[in-house]
Prephenate dehydrogenase
Amino acid sequence: MADSRLTGPVRVVGVGLLGSSVGLGLRARGIDVILADASPTHLGIAVDYGAGRAPAEGDEPQLVVVCVPPDVTADVIAAELEAYPEAIVTDVASVKLRVLDELTARGADVSRYIGSHPLAGRERGGPMSGRADLFAGRPWVVAAHDGISYRRGGVVDDLILDLGATLVEMTPEQHDAAVALISHVPQVVSSLMARRLVDGAPSALNLAGQGVRDVTRVAASDPQLWVQILGANAAPVRDILTAYRDDLDRFIDALGDVDAPGARRRIAEELAGGNSGVGRLPGKHGVDRRFTPVVVMVDDRPGQLAQLFQDVGDIGVNIEDFRMEHSPGAPVGLAELAIVPEAVESLIEELSQRGWRIAG
């Protein structure tokens, strides 16, 4: 069992995906985790899955982690601060400034509160979706404010490091502006683009490939949750969407008369601006490293994708990124593997010798 920076107990309020994952991760380090949830059924499931135990009389948590929907986050934090006067309280809501302002306005003891936000998730929610390693290597923002000392807030740093996440320090204002750009506005754009598909002819939708699926992937998110998030971070989101509308207007004007002087140049510059923006993203999709795609044809039958991964591993090549394109009813799919350039030639040769068909 790994050593923990926290001494515990840690109380987790809300046992959805994030709450149950916090519990599982801390239990793996031997921390006493106390679970609470408005739903007795969810609480029972989380306890049965090993994310922690039910509350008991006399519990005195070192730390409380609030993992509830954004529209009740401030209410729950205030109640936890009052119920456990010796505990530090944090939350994982995706908007930070509004929560802090609400707590300050109602006179809550914000000297024991510091907001945080893990940039991690899965497509599925609920206590059964929790994973002990959900936060490993993921950014986790701590939104410090002047009302809490560094010494008191250090227990939240310990939580983040114990769960294997990467600690990022921001002010609440900086955090909300950042997530508006990298999360909230992309959600809106994706949803509005997906809405155009509602009136699409079936013959057109049957042609859909990976491009439209990439653009609309997050459009499947819960609308009720996003109404809460966008309502809590409306101003930064509106500012970015206004600038985005200006970009669209310029693009639409250029398309209105593509033969007008400068129209094609304007279109090219807008598209090139997109190249520059993507290039600024850190990590595997950004400028840190460049990878070469290898596209392999995979038969549509059980075990083929697993066999491909096994063969690539046996060859000694790491898959840096992966995506799959498969049209309904097609006998084959296209597996695109992102590989370091120096390994591409040998990988293609080895895979071909093993009977794999390389596309392109």
Q: What stands out?
A: The longest helix spans residues 172-195.
